[in-house]
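Request: Mind sharing a record?
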Amino acid sequence: MTGAEEFEELRPLLFSIAYRILGSVTEAEDAVQETWLRWEVSSAQPISAKAFLSAVVTRISINVLRSARVRREEYVGPWFPEPLLTDPYQDPERSAELADSVSMAALVLLERLSPLERAVFVLREVFGFGFGEIASAVGRSEAACRQLVVRARRHMNEGRPRFEADRREREALAMRFFDALTEGDLDGLRELLAADVQMVADSGSKGPQWAGGFFGADHVARLLAALLPPFARIGGIVEPRQVNGQPGAIFRDSDGKVINTWTLDILDGQIQAIRTVSNPDKLGHVGPVADGWAVLRETQQARRGSD
Protein backbone atom coordinates (compact mmCIF):
# COMPACT_ATOMS: atom_id res chain seq x y z
CA MET A 1 0.00 0.00 0.00
CA THR A 2 1.38 3.43 -0.96
CA GLY A 3 1.57 6.35 1.46
CA ALA A 4 -1.24 8.08 -0.41
CA GLU A 5 -3.43 4.97 -0.12
CA GLU A 6 -2.70 4.66 3.60
CA PHE A 7 -3.66 8.28 4.10
CA GLU A 8 -6.93 7.95 2.17
CA GLU A 9 -7.84 4.89 4.20
CA LEU A 10 -7.32 6.87 7.40
CA ARG A 11 -8.87 10.14 6.19
CA PRO A 12 -12.33 9.45 7.74
CA LEU A 13 -10.73 8.85 11.16
CA LEU A 14 -8.54 11.95 10.88
CA PHE A 15 -11.53 14.14 9.96
CA SER A 16 -13.61 12.72 12.81
CA ILE A 17 -10.86 13.44 15.35
CA ALA A 18 -10.37 16.98 14.05
CA TYR A 19 -14.11 17.75 13.92
CA ARG A 20 -14.65 16.74 17.54
CA ILE A 21 -11.70 18.83 18.68
CA LEU A 22 -12.66 21.86 16.57
CA GLY A 23 -16.45 21.72 16.18
CA SER A 24 -16.02 22.95 12.61
CA VAL A 25 -16.34 21.02 9.37
CA THR A 26 -14.27 23.51 7.38
CA GLU A 27 -11.51 23.76 9.98
CA ALA A 28 -11.42 19.97 10.32
CA GLU A 29 -11.08 19.57 6.56
CA ASP A 30 -8.25 22.13 6.58
CA ALA A 31 -6.53 20.26 9.43
CA VAL A 32 -6.74 17.00 7.48
CA GLN A 33 -5.35 18.69 4.38
CA GLU A 34 -2.44 20.11 6.38
CA THR A 35 -1.83 16.63 7.80
CA TRP A 36 -1.63 15.27 4.26
CA LEU A 37 0.89 17.92 3.25
CA ARG A 38 3.10 17.02 6.21
CA TRP A 39 2.72 13.29 5.51
CA GLU A 40 3.60 13.80 1.84
CA VAL A 41 6.95 15.45 2.60
CA SER A 42 7.80 13.42 5.70
CA SER A 43 10.73 11.03 5.55
CA ALA A 44 9.55 9.20 8.67
CA GLN A 45 8.58 5.56 8.39
CA PRO A 46 6.33 5.07 11.41
CA ILE A 47 5.44 1.64 12.71
CA SER A 48 1.80 2.73 12.74
CA ALA A 49 0.52 5.20 10.15
CA LYS A 50 -2.69 5.47 12.17
CA ALA A 51 -0.87 6.56 15.33
CA PHE A 52 1.44 8.91 13.44
CA LEU A 53 -1.27 10.65 11.41
CA SER A 54 -3.68 10.83 14.34
CA ALA A 55 -0.95 12.55 16.36
CA VAL A 56 -0.26 15.04 13.56
CA VAL A 57 -3.92 15.97 13.03
CA THR A 58 -4.39 16.28 16.80
CA ARG A 59 -1.48 18.71 17.17
CA ILE A 60 -2.72 20.77 14.24
CA SER A 61 -6.24 20.84 15.67
CA ILE A 62 -5.01 21.92 19.11
CA ASN A 63 -3.14 24.84 17.56
CA VAL A 64 -6.15 25.85 15.46
CA LEU A 65 -8.45 25.63 18.49
CA ARG A 66 -6.14 27.80 20.58
CA SER A 67 -6.22 30.52 17.95
CA ALA A 68 -9.99 30.14 17.56
CA ARG A 69 -10.77 30.56 21.26
CA VAL A 70 -10.51 34.36 21.13
CA ARG A 71 -12.88 34.48 18.14
CA ARG A 72 -15.39 32.28 19.94
CA GLU A 73 -15.23 34.40 23.09
CA GLU A 74 -16.10 37.42 20.94
CA TYR A 75 -18.80 35.56 18.99
CA VAL A 76 -22.16 37.33 18.90
CA GLY A 77 -24.88 35.21 20.51
CA PRO A 78 -24.84 31.46 21.20
CA TRP A 79 -22.10 29.42 19.53
CA PHE A 80 -22.94 26.00 18.08
CA PRO A 81 -20.66 23.73 16.04
CA GLU A 82 -20.99 23.59 12.28
CA PRO A 83 -23.66 21.00 11.49
CA LEU A 84 -22.36 17.58 10.46
CA LEU A 85 -24.67 15.55 8.24
CA THR A 86 -22.58 12.37 8.03
CA ASP A 87 -19.71 11.21 10.20
CA PRO A 88 -17.32 9.53 7.73
CA TYR A 89 -15.71 7.31 10.38
CA GLN A 90 -17.53 4.23 11.65
CA ASP A 91 -16.37 1.71 14.24
CA PRO A 92 -18.97 -0.84 15.41
CA GLU A 93 -17.05 -1.40 18.66
CA ARG A 94 -17.30 2.29 19.57
CA SER A 95 -20.58 3.25 17.89
CA ALA A 96 -22.17 4.54 21.12
CA GLU A 97 -19.20 6.78 21.96
CA LEU A 98 -19.00 8.07 18.39
CA ALA A 99 -22.71 8.89 18.20
CA ASP A 100 -22.83 10.58 21.60
CA SER A 101 -19.70 12.66 21.04
CA VAL A 102 -20.88 14.25 17.82
CA SER A 103 -24.21 15.58 19.12
CA MET A 104 -24.66 19.34 19.26
CA ALA A 105 -25.12 19.20 23.03
CA ALA A 106 -21.92 17.21 23.59
CA LEU A 107 -19.86 19.45 21.31
CA VAL A 108 -21.13 22.56 23.09
CA LEU A 109 -20.15 20.90 26.37
CA LEU A 110 -16.65 20.19 25.01
CA GLU A 111 -16.23 23.96 24.66
CA ARG A 112 -15.83 24.09 28.45
CA LEU A 113 -12.55 22.20 28.21
CA SER A 114 -9.12 23.61 27.45
CA PRO A 115 -7.78 22.67 23.99
CA LEU A 116 -5.45 20.10 25.56
CA GLU A 117 -8.19 18.58 27.74
CA ARG A 118 -10.49 18.43 24.76
CA ALA A 119 -7.95 16.67 22.54
CA VAL A 120 -7.00 14.12 25.21
CA PHE A 121 -10.66 13.44 26.04
CA VAL A 122 -11.56 12.92 22.38
CA LEU A 123 -8.64 10.56 21.73
CA ARG A 124 -9.24 8.49 24.87
CA GLU A 125 -12.98 8.51 25.54
CA VAL A 126 -14.27 8.66 21.98
CA PHE A 127 -11.66 6.80 19.92
CA GLY A 128 -10.09 4.58 22.57
CA PHE A 129 -6.43 5.46 21.97
CA GLY A 130 -3.91 4.19 24.52
CA PHE A 131 -2.26 6.65 26.88
CA GLY A 132 1.12 6.05 25.27
CA GLU A 133 -0.24 7.13 21.89
CA ILE A 134 -2.03 10.10 23.43
CA ALA A 135 1.09 11.23 25.29
CA SER A 136 3.06 11.14 22.05
CA ALA A 137 0.34 13.07 20.22
CA VAL A 138 0.05 15.95 22.70
CA GLY A 139 3.63 16.08 24.01
CA ARG A 140 2.78 15.29 27.64
CA SER A 141 3.63 12.38 29.92
CA GLU A 142 1.23 9.47 30.27
CA ALA A 143 0.61 10.47 33.89
CA ALA A 144 -0.27 14.02 32.84
CA CYS A 145 -2.62 12.69 30.14
CA ARG A 146 -4.40 10.49 32.68
CA GLN A 147 -4.94 13.55 34.89
CA LEU A 148 -6.21 15.54 31.92
CA VAL A 149 -8.72 12.80 31.09
CA VAL A 150 -9.96 12.66 34.68
CA ARG A 151 -10.46 16.44 34.73
CA ALA A 152 -12.16 16.47 31.34
CA ARG A 153 -14.40 13.54 32.22
CA ARG A 154 -15.51 15.31 35.41
CA HIS A 155 -16.42 18.48 33.49
CA MET A 156 -18.27 16.49 30.86
CA ASN A 157 -20.20 14.37 33.36
CA GLU A 158 -21.40 17.47 35.21
CA GLY A 159 -23.41 18.59 32.20
CA ARG A 160 -23.55 15.51 30.00
CA PRO A 161 -26.76 15.41 27.98
CA ARG A 162 -28.90 12.28 28.01
CA PHE A 163 -30.86 11.12 24.99
CA GLU A 164 -33.39 8.42 24.34
CA ALA A 165 -31.57 5.11 23.92
CA ASP A 166 -33.91 3.80 21.22
CA ARG A 167 -33.05 5.58 17.97
CA ARG A 168 -36.27 4.40 16.32
CA GLU A 169 -38.38 6.00 19.04
CA ARG A 170 -36.50 9.27 18.63
CA GLU A 171 -36.97 9.19 14.87
CA ALA A 172 -40.69 8.43 15.19
CA LEU A 173 -41.19 11.32 17.62
CA ALA A 174 -39.21 13.65 15.37
CA MET A 175 -41.37 12.76 12.37
CA ARG A 176 -44.51 13.49 14.41
CA PHE A 177 -42.97 16.82 15.36
CA PHE A 178 -42.14 17.82 11.78
CA ASP A 179 -45.60 16.74 10.60
CA ALA A 180 -47.22 18.92 13.28
CA LEU A 181 -44.78 21.70 12.40
CA THR A 182 -45.62 21.85 8.70
CA GLU A 183 -49.35 21.64 9.46
CA GLY A 184 -49.20 24.40 12.08
CA ASP A 185 -50.81 22.00 14.56
CA LEU A 186 -50.51 23.97 17.81
CA ASP A 187 -51.89 21.23 20.09
CA GLY A 188 -49.78 18.58 18.39
CA LEU A 189 -46.64 20.67 18.91
CA ARG A 190 -47.45 21.37 22.57
CA GLU A 191 -47.86 17.64 23.20
CA LEU A 192 -44.37 16.86 21.88
CA LEU A 193 -42.48 19.68 23.61
CA ALA A 194 -41.17 19.43 27.16
CA ALA A 195 -42.65 22.03 29.52
CA ASP A 196 -39.27 23.79 29.80
CA VAL A 197 -38.20 23.30 26.18
CA GLN A 198 -35.71 25.83 24.82
CA MET A 199 -35.26 26.97 21.24
CA VAL A 200 -31.94 28.70 20.61
CA ALA A 201 -30.27 29.85 17.39
CA ASP A 202 -26.68 30.40 16.37
CA SER A 203 -26.74 33.16 13.76
CA GLY A 204 -23.49 34.93 14.58
CA SER A 205 -25.54 38.10 13.92
CA LYS A 206 -25.39 37.20 10.21
CA GLY A 207 -28.75 35.49 9.90
CA PRO A 208 -32.19 35.49 11.55
CA GLN A 209 -32.08 34.49 15.19
CA TRP A 210 -34.48 33.91 18.06
CA ALA A 211 -33.35 36.98 20.03
CA GLY A 212 -32.18 35.43 23.32
CA GLY A 213 -34.08 32.25 22.56
CA PHE A 214 -37.62 31.05 23.21
CA PHE A 215 -38.49 29.02 26.26
CA GLY A 216 -41.49 27.00 27.40
CA ALA A 217 -43.77 24.66 25.47
CA ASP A 218 -46.59 27.12 24.89
CA HIS A 219 -44.32 29.96 23.74
CA VAL A 220 -42.29 27.76 21.36
CA ALA A 221 -45.38 25.96 20.01
CA ARG A 222 -47.15 29.26 19.23
CA LEU A 223 -44.09 30.63 17.44
CA LEU A 224 -43.69 27.53 15.29
CA ALA A 225 -47.39 27.19 14.52
CA ALA A 226 -47.46 30.82 13.38
CA LEU A 227 -44.38 30.75 11.16
CA LEU A 228 -44.27 27.36 9.48
CA PRO A 229 -47.53 27.37 7.46
CA PRO A 230 -46.69 30.68 5.72
CA PHE A 231 -43.13 29.40 5.22
CA ALA A 232 -44.59 26.41 3.40
CA ARG A 233 -46.85 28.66 1.32
CA ILE A 234 -43.86 30.55 -0.09
CA GLY A 235 -42.30 27.25 -1.16
CA GLY A 236 -40.12 26.67 1.90
CA ILE A 237 -38.97 23.10 2.40
CA VAL A 238 -38.49 21.20 5.65
CA GLU A 239 -36.18 18.23 4.99
CA PRO A 240 -36.07 15.93 8.04
CA ARG A 241 -32.75 14.13 8.41
CA GLN A 242 -30.00 13.25 10.86
CA VAL A 243 -27.86 16.22 11.89
CA ASN A 244 -24.92 15.54 14.21
CA GLY A 245 -26.27 12.07 14.84
CA GLN A 246 -29.57 13.46 16.15
CA PRO A 247 -33.04 13.83 14.64
CA GLY A 248 -33.12 17.14 12.86
CA ALA A 249 -33.82 18.88 9.59
CA ILE A 250 -32.46 21.13 6.89
CA PHE A 251 -34.68 24.11 6.05
CA ARG A 252 -34.49 25.27 2.43
CA ASP A 253 -35.99 28.11 0.42
CA SER A 254 -38.08 27.59 -2.72
CA ASP A 255 -34.86 27.23 -4.77
CA GLY A 256 -33.53 24.50 -2.48
CA LYS A 257 -30.90 26.74 -0.88
CA VAL A 258 -30.06 26.15 2.77
CA ILE A 259 -31.61 28.54 5.31
CA ASN A 260 -30.62 26.73 8.51
CA THR A 261 -30.32 23.36 10.21
CA TRP A 262 -32.19 22.13 13.27
CA THR A 263 -31.32 19.44 15.79
CA LEU A 264 -33.68 18.04 18.42
CA ASP A 265 -32.66 16.86 21.90
CA ILE A 266 -35.18 14.16 22.83
CA LEU A 267 -35.59 12.65 26.29
CA ASP A 268 -38.48 10.95 28.11
CA GLY A 269 -40.62 11.05 24.98
CA GLN A 270 -40.44 14.82 24.59
CA ILE A 271 -38.29 17.41 22.83
CA GLN A 272 -36.10 19.13 25.39
CA ALA A 273 -34.22 21.53 23.11
CA ILE A 274 -34.22 22.76 19.52
CA ARG A 275 -30.88 24.10 18.31
CA THR A 276 -30.74 25.92 15.00
CA VAL A 277 -27.71 27.07 13.02
CA SER A 278 -28.49 29.97 10.68
CA ASN A 279 -25.06 31.60 10.44
CA PRO A 280 -24.37 31.41 6.68
CA ASP A 281 -20.64 31.04 7.39
CA LYS A 282 -21.40 27.66 8.98
CA LEU A 283 -23.67 26.30 6.25
CA GLY A 284 -21.65 26.43 3.03
CA HIS A 285 -20.61 22.77 3.30
CA VAL A 286 -24.29 21.73 3.50
CA GLY A 287 -25.13 23.35 0.16
CA PRO A 288 -25.73 26.72 -1.52
CA VAL A 289 -26.87 29.14 1.18
CA ALA A 290 -30.08 31.17 1.01
CA ASP A 291 -30.61 34.77 2.07
CA GLY A 292 -32.21 34.01 5.43
CA TRP A 293 -33.37 37.57 6.01
CA ALA A 294 -35.16 37.66 2.64
CA VAL A 295 -36.90 34.35 3.41
CA LEU A 296 -38.00 35.66 6.81
CA ARG A 297 -39.42 38.85 5.27
CA GLU A 298 -41.31 36.84 2.64
CA THR A 299 -42.63 34.48 5.32
CA GLN A 300 -43.86 37.39 7.44
CA GLN A 301 -45.55 38.97 4.40
CA ALA A 302 -47.30 35.66 3.65
CA ARG A 303 -48.40 35.44 7.28
CA ARG A 304 -49.84 38.98 7.25
CA GLY A 305 -51.61 38.24 3.96
CA SER A 306 -53.44 35.30 5.55
CA ASP A 307 -54.57 37.21 8.66
The radius of gyration is 21 Å. The mean pLDDT is 91. The first helix runs from residue 3 to 22.
